[in-house]
Design a protein that fits this description.
This protein is mainly α and 292 residues long. It has one domain.
């Protein structure tokens, strides 16, 4: 029988400065934000996010160019309607990047390794949600900023009024980012395989939009315009648009808008409930994965 030997490798306790929980959360946030755009990953991971960014910027650049030539203010795309107009591109971005943030650790069963450090389950979830929301905010806010700056450079009239519309549109971008990002993260977290995750997120957005459009069409045929407006609460893009129209003074970009300030408050409350509910579901999902 062979004998065992104990080697003294000179182990010493760490006596340096401990950076703590805040540093871990910040590191998780930065890591996931970079991952959303493929930074620090192979070149193929950067193709889709940056291609979508370019597509998002093209209409804004074209609109500014047309305005510079024609000097017609109507040629500039409305700030508040930009995200709704390009909703398909935003949905594709969420569908392709949410699985990168929400399901990679689940797929490779490395979630317990994260919780071996001084970071809680809720910290882990909030860092990921914040990273996804920031990535989406950049995707939607940069083209709107190009529109605004292009209007200033070409000396658009009533620049003060345009500034107010621009700031209101940025608030709308924040809502789009947190609502759509939260929905995409939840769906992706329950589909560890990336291909299924992409298809599932797109299906959720398409089905909700299609079903709401059908209900609104039937309600309009029966001249039930109140139902047309309230049905918009069940489509994510329409939901945020209702908040923009009723509470931020934007022009409608959807078929039906819930009536009055009450409609805006209900839509805002539903946005908050969606985000809070998504956080709770993600917390339970990653906590279960961390214990397995």
């Amino acid at each position: 029988m062979s004998t065992s030997t104990i080697h003294d490798i000179g182990y010493r306790h760490y006596e340096g400065r401990r950076l703590g929980r805040a540093y871990v959360m910040r590191s998780l946030y930065v890591h996931n934000l970079r991952a959303a755009y493929g930074l620090g990953r192979p070149a193929r991971a950067k193709v889709m996010p940056f291609l979508l960014v370019a597509i998002m910027l093209l209409p804004a650049a074209g609109s500014v160019a047309v305005y510079a030539i024609s000097k017609e203010a109507d040629t500039l795309i409305r700030y508040s309607s930009y995200a709704s107009t390009l909703s398909v591109i935003i949905a594709i971005f969420v569908a392709t990047q949410a699985p990168v943030l929400a399901s990679r650790e689940l797929r490779f069963h490395v979630v317990p390794l994260y919780f071996s450090r001084p970071v809680g389950h809720l910290d882990f979830v909030l860092a990921k949600q914040a990273a996804m929301a920031t990535a989406l905010f950049a995707l939607t806010a940069v083209p709107i900023t190009v529109l605004y700056l292009g209007g200033l450079v070409t000396r658009i009239p009533k620049s003060g009024e345009h500034l107010l519309h621009y700031l209101a549109a940025l608030v709308g971008c924040v809502l789009f980012a947190v609502v759509l990002g939260s929905i995409g993260m939840v769906v992706a977290a329950f589909t560890p395989r990336r291909g299924f995750g992409v298809a599932s997120v797109i299906a959720v957005f398409m089905l909700s939009t299609t079903i709401v459009a059908i209900v609104q069409g039937l309600a309009e045929m029966r001249t039930n315009f109140s139902l047309v407006g309230w049905a918009g609460l069940f489509s994510p893009f329409n939901l945020v648009d209702i908040v923009q129209v009723r509470l931020l003074g934007a022009k409608s970009s959807s078929i039906g808008i819930a009536p009055g300030t009450l409609g805006g408050l209900v839509a805002l409350a539903l946005c908050a409930a969606l985000v809070a509910g998504s956080t709770a579901v993600l917390y339970g999902r990653f906590r279960k994965a961390g214990l397995s």
